Amino acid sequence: MWRDPVDGHEPNRWRAAFGGPAWSWDPGTGQYYLHMFTPQQPDLNWENPDMRAAVYDMMNRWLDRGVDGFRMDVINHIAKDDDALSGDSDAYVMQPRVHEHLQEMHDRVFAGRDALLTVGEMPGVSVEDAVLFTAPERHELDMVFQFEHVGLDHAPASKFTRQETDLPALKASLARWQTGLEQRGWNSLYLSNHDQPRPVSRFGAAARAESDDPFAFRYESATLLATVLHLHRGTPYVYQGDEIGMVNAGFTTIEQYRDVESVNWFRGAVGRGMSAASALEALAFRSRDNARTPIPWDDSEPAGGFSTAEPWIGMGQGWPHVTVAADRAAGDRSVYEHHRRLIALRHRSRTVQLGTFTLLEPEHPVLWAFTRALPDGSTGNEDDPPLVVVANLSSSDLVLPEGIAGRTGDLVLGNLGEPGSTGMLRPWEARVHVCR
Asked: Known catalytic residues?
């Protein structure tokens, strides 16, 4: 997207996501080009039909080779308001023509093919927007990645200013999306990806000011969070490494980081007077590199079976103890095997697949509880009974409220095996019961 200079400067004052102007000068053309992220990532001009045709050709080539679908990066940025490119409004997200582009993409790429999966990453998307993007009759996307719940622990000034996750707010956010997409559209379910810290380090025991040990209740935290996520309605996403309970990278110097956002923020923060130690502490919790360390397959040198060469980024503080091999050998404390049990439950239970969601005890500070039941008031059959999920996000025993304890029937699945007491949850215990 090319624009002439305005009074010798950028066409407008848009800023790139990782810092600096969103426009870069190209001496060859004597114009500026737009990049909402890095200068190496120019925004494409979706108003150009030849450009769109080239993208669709590329997508079709990959589908012909056998891929099963696409995850579309910040896809709600592709439509720009032409007048805004010469002004200062923020008209580059959720512009109306994004729906036209996605519908054309469906017609030119996906229509007539066997079942595929499409998911669009969409910062700033609302529930109402998501209904439009994912309603099947509109032929746009199967689901979206929304950011509301992973922004709740961001301070207003910067996501690098840490504030503890408020569990009632997190529960309410996900519940609102469950309700909002219950009749039309579909939810994607995730707690982490390549841009987010590890869930164990962000939402688990180590993050709740209960321990300085980054591995505190690691198995329990990883499996509790997985249980809660997989028992919501929608399609769960398991980011690589979460299935073995990986923790944040634990980097202690800026030289260990590779993420352009983290490096740029560190330089800016230190330049504005923040101590390097404080800036590194912020990165240790929030940096995207926390999710980008290599998968440690085993404890072998030099890179845990990931490579025989030195990887582009360090192995992270979990290695050599947290590895695929170690977790697979951990028996009933294998995070991997717990994920397998959750996936098997979803495959066999229509209640998990399609049941309605009802949040219980929304204001409780450490209890996450909800029910799932087949729609239209159905109580299901022997294979699909209604379910109640209970989880204790604390490092102390928790007595269940009487109204919930009385609804917990037979145990379907739990991360700590058989309960010590049906009316009590052990630290970081999660259980799925038949709902009475």
From this structure: 73, 121
